[in-house]
Amino acid sequence: MRHMRILIREVDNFERKGDLWRITKSEGIEGTLEIKSLNLQIPLSEIYRDVNFK
After folding, report:
1. CA dist 7 to 15, 19, 47, Å?
2. Whole-angstrom Cα distance, residue 39 to residue 9?
3. At residue 9, does pLDDT exceed 80?
4. Full residue range of the structural domain in which residue 31 is found
5. How confident is the model at residue 10 (pLDDT cuts 50, 70, 90)?
6. What ranges make up the beta strands (E) of the chain?
7. Cα distance between residue 44 and residue 29, in whole Å
8. φ/ψ of residue 44, rounded to 5
9. 38 occurs within a structural domain
């Protein structure tokens, strides 16, 4: 496993390099999830588009 994402009003992005894991956090609807290995950036507003937080 090289990457893992956890979505709960924020995104924890785990990136593995060798034996080490780097963790970055994206928070808030204005944040962006970046997946460097895929050269991809996804606005959290897209991920949470149909989610109604109460």
Report:
1. 15, 24, 9
2. 23
3. no
4. 3-47
5. confident
6. 3-7, 10-17, 20-27, 32-35, 40-43
7. 5
8. -60, -25
9. yes
* Residue type at 9 in one-letter notation: R
- 35 is a domain residue: yes
Place of tokens 């994402």: 5
Tell me if 53 is assigned to some domain: no
| pTM, rounded to two decimals | 0.58
Determine, yes or no, domain membership for 37.
Answer: yes
pLDDT tens digits, residue range 12-53? Answer: 888 888 999 988 888 778 888 888 888 999 898 888 788 776
| Domain tally, the chain | 1
d(CA 21, CA 35): 14
